[in-house]
Design a protein that fits this description.
Length: 407
């Protein structure tokens, strides 16, 4: 396998000139074509595991330097002004500014930094231009290609009315991003057959912040390179590449993004308690939920959690989503299942803090905050689907609840 040449030459053989490595986030956003009035999310994780997010206008970041005592990420695409807290979701992205890749050196994936660079080189040749920005994230590489936005092929996302025919609707962009992830997977397979890459190609993804420090293991500085010979791509060129390579969506077909209803904790508690059979005990729990939410199995699943999309945190969040949406289909035992998920997650974090199992140890208060945010997110989606909290009733008017009694 040959060494990568991205840092030395462009795909067409021209000298590839990095414009310095000590660059702040504002430099990177400017190189990627962000406007000063656009808003992005800044996201941090303190050493105790506590996450926080805030939204900043690009102009506010001119002299901002990322703190180095914690992990820091930034949002890859601009977020609507209507979002007042959190980092926003795919539903809040206003324009697609960049294509990014997230290439990690890890077991089961790419095995060396040279392999990561080779993937970037191959992508650059396929696209016909090197990335405008390349970030060495501490344990891998995150390259960025700049998307141009001519009026006839705008990267601004169409509003719900769909009157702007030169703009793509949100769902089209979500599908194209997933196909881009599929292309990256294709190229990674060419470099390292069997290599797995994370399915992180969504519009509101957050990525390592230039100038920060990666604290995932031993602290490593995040190094940023800007390239002055990089050209912009437009969306039609991207689509042509994806079609030529027959790139399929990474992770399978992309379903429509769920509409979320803003939800506070009191709203979530009221919604949970109003679900049919929410207060069912173990003996009255639906057979399906009883099988899927065994406490010992939950603990074992979270213990096995890795540091990528199969992390204990993401597995817990997936379980919360699962039971909340199952409850809207008449499955009894929502409250008990949520309590089991919470207790299992807290137990795993306690065992991590005690050194009994491997993985990032979060304090009890941080882990409890993780769980509450997962519940809020799941309930906000369920409410957005207009799932009725009114109990299901049979022909006699009695409440109908699926149970295990007599099973």
């Amino acid at each position: 396998m040959t060494n990568s040449t991205l840092s030395r030459t462009s795909p067409r053989g021209r000298r590839q000139n990095p414009v310095g490595t000590e660059r702040n986030l504002h430099d990177v956003l400017s190189a990627l074509g962000f406007r000063s009035t656009e808003r992005i999310s800044i996201n941090t994780k303190a050493r105790d595991g506590r996450f926080s997010s805030r939204l900043c206008q690009v102009s506010e970041l001119a002299d901002w330097l990322a703190p180095t005592d914690r992990d820091v990420w930034f949002g890859a695409n601009p977020i609507a002004a209507s979002v007042v807290r959190g980092r926003g979701t795919d539903c809040d992205v206003t324009r697609v500014r960049v294509l990014f890749a997230d290439l990690d050196v890890k077991d089961g994936g790419l095995e060396t930094m040279d392999e990561c660079r080779e993937v970037v080189d191959k992508l650059a040749r396929i696209l016909g231009t090197p990335p405008a920005v390349m970030v060495e994230s501490g344990h891998g590489i995150q390259p960025y290609w700049r998307l141009t936005s001519p009026r006839v092929a705008s990267t601004r996302i169409a509003d719900e009315s769909g009157t702007a025919t030169e703009r793509w609707p949100r769902q089209t962009w979500r599908e194209v991003y997933a196909r881009w992830g599929g292309l990256i997977h294709q190229v990674a397979q060419e470099v390292r057959p069997g290599a797995r890459i994370d399915n992180v190609y969504d519009l509101s993804r957050v990525l390592r912040c230039p100038g920060s420090v990666n604290h995932k293991a031993a602290p490593v500085s995040v190094i940023t390179h800007l390239y002055d010979s990089a050209r912009s791509l437009n969306r039609d060129q991207l689509l042509d590449v994806l079609d030529d390579r027959e790139a399929a969506p990474l992770g399978g077909a992309v379903g429509p993004r769920s509409v979320r209803v803003p939800t506070g904790w009191a709203d979530a508690e009221a919604w949970v308690n109003a679900q049919p059979g929410a207060g069912a005990d173990l003996d009255s729990m639906s057979p399906y939920l009883r099988r899927k939410f065994n406490y010992g199995d939950l603990v074992a699943e979270f213990v096995r959690g890795t540091d990528d999309e199969r992390s204990a945190h993401n597995l817990m969040r997936n379980r919360v989503n699962h039971v909340v949406l199952s409850s809207t289909e008449g499955n009894a035992g929502l409250a008990l299942c949520l309590n089991l998920v919470c207790a299992a997650y807290l137990e795993v974090m306690e065992r991590r803090r005690a050194g009994e199992v491997a993985g990032e140890a979060r304090s009890e208060s941080v882990a409890l905050g993780d769980f509450k945010r997962a519940v809020l997110g799941a309930v906000s989606v369920a409410r957005g689907r207009h799932n009725s909290p009114m109990p299901l009733r049979d022909s006699s008017g009695s409440i109908y609840i699926r149970t295990t009694q007599g099973a």
